[in-house]
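**User:**
Everyone, produce one record:

**Assistant:**
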Amino acid sequence: MPPPSEAPPPPLNGGYGWVCTLCVALINANTWGLNSSYGVFLAHYLSNDTFPEATYLEYAFVGGLSISCAMLVSPLATLSIRYYGSHVTLSIGIVLETASLMAASFANKRQIWQLFLSQGVCFGFGMGFLFVASVGIPPQWFTTKRSLANGISSSGSGFGGLVYSLAAGAMIRSIGLAWCFRVLAISCLTVNTVCTILIRDRNKIIGSRHLLDLKLFKRPEFLLFNGYGFFSMLGYIVLIFSLADYANRIGLTASQASVISAILNLGQGLGRPPIGYFSDSIGRINMAGLTTSLCALFALVIWIFAKSYGVLILYALVGGTVAGTFWATAAPVAVEVVGLRDLPAALNLEWLVIVLPCTFSQPTALQIASNTGGYLGTQLFVAVMYMAAALCVLLLRRWKIDQLKEIARRENDHPNGISMAESELGANEDIARPAERRTQWKEFWKWRKI
């Protein structure tokens, strides 16, 4: 009698997975979405001289620190998931995030380092635990709808940014900065706790490997995936934190600048579900490359020429729909590259890779604007970074075509008709090695779902 198969049961492709997807969307709204509203706090700090001894560059680092610390803590969060499970890891994130907001409400106005530690470092650590523990859950529940589910879950950060940008500004004006932080702490504590209770992962069922497998860096396709994230973040962080300042530079009021920031977040919320939906239809790598290219195109043909309120609103809305492409496609594309079992390990290495761009992209953009006396250099920087990210995806697409051709050769089947179950589980991670660089560029440009 042959031994029983060790392959895990297929995902349900729905069912309770939609509940988990909604929970992850709400967690994103109360982590990344809240962090996206930092522009509102930045405007308040600068206009009211809240921390008299702080410089603009120091304020910029507060926003960058929260994102980089979220990525930097990913190995620790990964170990927490491995030994204690997703719910404990999420709970740690809730405690840290709530504590950070409460601590920020008591920050001494003459001690900017207290803001660094609270709104920057501690908030980033909490966001990192919540993000790492939740980002890989929706893909575990779906097959053909995986990218759609990931797009819906990641859209929470856009809608959360929209709500919190408007709410934070209103609360600061009505109840003051300190109580604004406290209300936000209570709100995040409540929503994230409910989501943690409801969410369910399938780590044990599919045999996820929550390790920092450095051997992945030996795989050229994984390095291309790293490049996609690295260059995307160099453009994305600059865009979300600089657009409001650019609005002020062209003569718009502070109120109009905050609306621009909110519209950008609205665009992200509206754009990510369609990115996920069409990724399942035309191919996840295809969609990642197409939308990343559009990010560069919109920066070149719209943002550079946006000198009025109306045109800048257009760019914020249209550009926002594709600006966060990496967050909507990271997990599905990673599955195509390393398989479902190695997804947690691959993503956690990716989070470490993007620590540097998340930390230094905004200060770099400010320095470019300061040295050139305008925003043209910064706008070109954003466009070029997105171009570089799109190039990485283009080369990744070529690798995927090679992999599918090799699988077809081994299974004696046509590439468009083969089953991707083995590939998605990661059992054939070396299949493309004999076929590397076989695909000619003439054949590469032929359309196919990748």
Remarks:
- The mean pLDDT is 83.
- The first helix runs from residue 16 to 36.
